[in-house]
Write a structure and sequence with these properties.
heterodimer; A: alpha/beta; TIM Barrel; 9 helices; B: 246 residues; alpha/beta; Rossmann fold; seven-stranded mixed β-sheet; 5 helices; binds flavin-adenine dinucleotide; binds flavin mononucleotide; binds FE2/S2 (inorganic) cluster
């Protein structure tokens, strides 16, 4: 049985990649299991400068999902390279995906330049879809011109494969996917969280200090599948699909929609062993569904 | 870390307040004030629920929780032999101060449970301590006898005066002129902040809404006075009084 898949610049033993923001810098999870079993991982959204993030409460709950408004808390690219990635390297012997966020074009460019020098980084994942920062972030991802412009600028400053992470909070995701493909993206990661909110019934006030947050988890899976399906039908670059993946069946479904690999986000927070369980269960589910080679099922829903 | 625990008992001990005894691994518990994160199997309660370890021995963990919303309501319906998926022990817990001569335990409402293990440790170490417990009303009072059984002076106070003194914990400390040179506190944030404003030194346990409970999501970052932060689930929930930003 073949579980291995390929992404631009990366050969993966299996298609399972923990999603940015839900897996810290990876080493935190090596307390739970040997993370070398993962395809690779995408680490916490990193920005040029250190960010403290939003006020708490940053977390709310909803039926089959959660909202977060972390606000890209991270120690800044230099500290990530000198501390976090050093710790990660001790427990992980594969290349990782560097998820980079920002508020202005210049921050993105500088952060990408610096992180590209780290030898553990195998690809850049440009987060143009974070709903939780006041400036930039999502704004880049909801407009095809600014998405393409930023992609082009980043393309010029790094030799690493460039994955661009799209937001679902748009009216026409195909248009944005085509724009970043045209601008030089090597792959598309999708989807980031959907914007949402909860209100405390006792106080009548929003639960999140930031009022709005990003909705994730199994509740968003149908939306993610539909968007991956749509984008697959128009682009020629691979898609890394995510949104609500909780088990091995969800992985297959996402690959049927058009994903070449998948990211698992929120599931890690509920169960730190989620990715391990999915990887171990994949062969059984493949057998059940008569699948021998995962590479062959990508986009099956289009046939 | 991730384990199935069986419910041994789950009984109501005060207004909306339940005491649950769980059977399972306790070998990793390091300090009083650590917590467990309980999965409540229901699509409405997607996230785990953090609850402090109140007491433990080689085979059992005791928790005390108040029915607050959906998750704790479901928890209150669990019966003997039901299984719970639990992550823990989590967090740093209280560090016992062995130097201070006269110590004080200050608890408010469901902040009281983790302090019971602190009291047991102080008792074991032969450290002299008093206890001030604050509740809303007489119907909410629990565990006062458990602290008394450890030989401590226990001052109970209720907001409406229906049991013990009337007012909050600080009112009692002031009006009774209670002396102490170190404290351990857990309770509503207002109470904790009021304590920090006073001139005492001690440790306080904080709550934040959690995504994961083990340091992965940055959901629970709590600012500290050195312009930095601590994750309540990992470097907390217990902070030193000098670290607390009001
Ligand atoms: C470290 C720690 C230890 C705790 N120890 C105890 C204890 O020993 N006994 C006890 O009764 N309670 C304790 N709490 C509070 C307890 O976690 C909440 O009362 C509980 O999560 C409420 O869940 P619910 O489903 O009933 O409420 P809902 O309002 O339905 O919960 C919705 C969401 O908000 C979260 N939430 C609501 N209130 C709180 C809160 N006060 N703190 C953190 N998250 C909250 C829930 O976890 C859930 O994700 C502790 C909290 C923390 C952070
Ligand atoms: C707590 C939390 C933090 C996140 N932080 C980031 C981030 O820093 N960068 C990013 O690109 N996406 C971030 N995301 C989005 C996830 O990577 C993922 O796109 C989204 O949650 C959908 O997948 P899921 O339903 O499997 O969680 C975050 C999600 C969560 C829940
Ligand atoms: S709750 Fe996720 S880091 Fe603390």
């Amino acid at each position: 049985m073949k579980l291995n898949v390929e992404l631009p610049g990366m050969k993966l033993d299996n298609p399972i990649i923990p999603a940015s923001g839900t897996f810290g810098f990876g080493y935190e999870f090596s307390e739970f299991y040997d993370i070398n079993i993962l395809g690779t991982l995408s680490f916490k959204g990193t920005t040029l400068e250190e960010r403290f993030g939003n006020k708490t409460p940053r977390i709310a709950e909803s039926t089959s999902g959660m909202l977060n408004a972390i606000g890209l808390q991270n120690p800044g690219v230099d500290a990530v390279i000198s501390n976090e990635l050093v710790k990660l390297k001790k427990v992980f012997n594969k290349k990782v995906i560097a998820n980079i966020g920002g508020s202005y074009e210049e921050d993105y460019i500088e952060a990408v330049k610096r992180i590209s020098k780290s030898d553990i980084v195998g690809a850049i994942e440009l987060n143009i879809s974070c709903p939780n920062v006041k400036e930039g972030g999502l704004l880049f991802g909801t407009n095809k011109e600014s998405a393409a412009k930023l992609t082009r600028l980043i393309r010029e400053v790094t030799d690493l494969p460039l994955y661009v992470k799209l937001s679902p909070n748009v009216t026409n995701i195909k248009e944005i996917a085509l724009a970043v493909e045209e601008a030089g993206a090597d792959a598309i990661s999708m989807i980031n969280t959907l914007v949402g909110m909860r209100i405390d019934l006792k106080t009548g006030k929003p639960v999140l200090a930031n009022t709005y947050g990003g909705f994730s988890g199994p509740a968003i899976k149908p939306v993610a599948l539909k968007m991956v399906h749509e984008v697959y039908s128009v682009v020629n670059i691979p898609i890394i699909g995510m949104g609500g993946i909780m088990n091995a069946y969800d992985v297959i479904e996402m690959m049927y929609a058009g994903a070449s690999a998948v990211q698992v986000g929120t599931a890690n927070l509920i169960d730190p062993y989620a990715c391990k369980k999915i990887i171990e269960d994949l062969p059984r589910v493949m057998k059940e569904l008569n699948i021998n080679d995962l590479k062959e099922i990508v986009g099956r829903a289009h046939l | 870390m991730n384990n199935i625990y069986s419910v041994i008992s789950n009984e109501k001990i005060a207004y909306k307040t339940y005491k649950m005894i769980l059977y399972g691994d306790t070998s990793k518990i390091k300090a009083p004030g650590q917590f467990i994160n309980i999965k409540i199997d229901n699509e409405k309660t997607f996230l785990r629920r953090p609850i402090s370890i109140c007491d433990y021995d080689s085979k059992t963990i005791t928790i005390i929780y108040k029915v607050f919303g959906e998750g704790t309501k479901i928890l209150s319906t669990k019966k003997m032999f039901d299984d719970l998926d639990i992550l823990g022990p989590l967090g740093n817990g209280f560090a016992i101060n062995k130097k201070a001569k006269k110590q004080m335990i200050i608890g408010g409402g469901v902040g009281i449970p983790p302090l019971y293990s602190v009291a047991k440790k102080l008792h074991e170490e032969n450290i002299e301590f008093d206890v001030v417990l604050g509740y809303n009303s007489k119907v909410d009072v629990f565990f006062e006898g458990m602290f008394r059984a450890l030989g401590a002076n226990v001052y109970v106070t209720t907001m409406d005066g229906s049991c013990g003194y009337k007012g909050n914990v600080l009112n009692v400390i002031r009006s009774k002129n209670l002396y102490f040179d170190y404290y351990y506190a857990c309770g509503p944030r207002k109470m904790l902040h009021a304590l920090v404003k006073e001139d005492y030194t001690g440790q306080l346990s904080f709550e934040e809404r959690m995504g994961c409970g083990f340091g992965a999501c940055m959901g629970c970052s709590h600012p500290t006075t050195d312009d930095s932060y601590k994750r309540i689930c990992k470097e907390g929930p217990v902070l030193e009084s000098f670290e607390v930003v009001i």
